[in-house]
Amino acid sequence: MVLRSREKSTANSFSNADEALQDMRKIVYLSLGSNLADRVQNLNTAIERLGAWGKVVTISSFYETEPVGYADQPWFLNCAVKLNTEKMPLQLLSRILDVEQKMGRRRIQKNGPRIIDIDILLFGHSIVNTPTLVVPHPEMHNRRFVLEPLAEIAPDERHPVFKRTIRELRDGLPPGPAVRKFAALQTGWHDPK
After folding, report:
1. CATH class for domain 23-181?
2. What digits encode the pLDDT tens for the residues 57-102?
3. CA nearest to 145, candidates 41, 44, 42, 62
4. Which residue numbers are catalytic?
5. How many whole angstroms separate alpha carbon 82 and alpha carbon 124?
6. pLDDT at 16 over 70
């Protein structure tokens, strides 16, 4: 009888540990972009590598977007990703920078061409302000190439500072650089369900 009591206690401990682990997971929204080489492959490779630090829950369509800031470069392919992760914000940032570097990203020119660019847009409902990371992303509310894909997968998610939904932020933007759904399908990712 004592053994069963201990077994039950141990089972409850594991169950509680699983629940605590679930509570530690955060929903993170990321923006990915590429305008060099095979843009579709670059996005798919980055998405696959992000799966090493959490569960890729949802991916938006791919959008072809006009460059912003520095116009004399190829158009981008952008998407938004919903990631469920146990990592803390700076840990995730470190992993993201590692993915960018290993994929060949070189920070030579601000807003210039790049193999891959991965930005943390939202990290749960957290507000992060450190010298190396600001979340929510400080420019996301001004960028149609970010809000259009994000509104596809998280239209009712609220910006923790502005208290407006992603859809409201997108719909409030003035006309600007072109953003259009891309004809190619994401070929490298599949829902792991």
Report:
1. alpha beta
2. 999 999 999 998 777 889 999 999 999 999 999 999 999 999 999 9
3. 62
4. 105, 114, 117, 119
5. 11
6. no
Segment 138-142 mean pLDDT:
96
What's the token pair of residue 62? Answer: 């791919």
- pTM, full prediction: 0.83
What angle, rounded to 10 degrees, do the helices at 39-50 and 89-102 form? 140
Domain locations in the chain?
A: 23-181
Two tokens, residue 118: 């991965």
User: Who wins on pLDDT, 174 or 191?
Assistant: 174
DSSP characters over 103-170 = TT----STT---S-EEEEEEETT--EE-SS-EES-TTGGG-HHHHHHHHHH-TTPBPTTT--BHHHHH
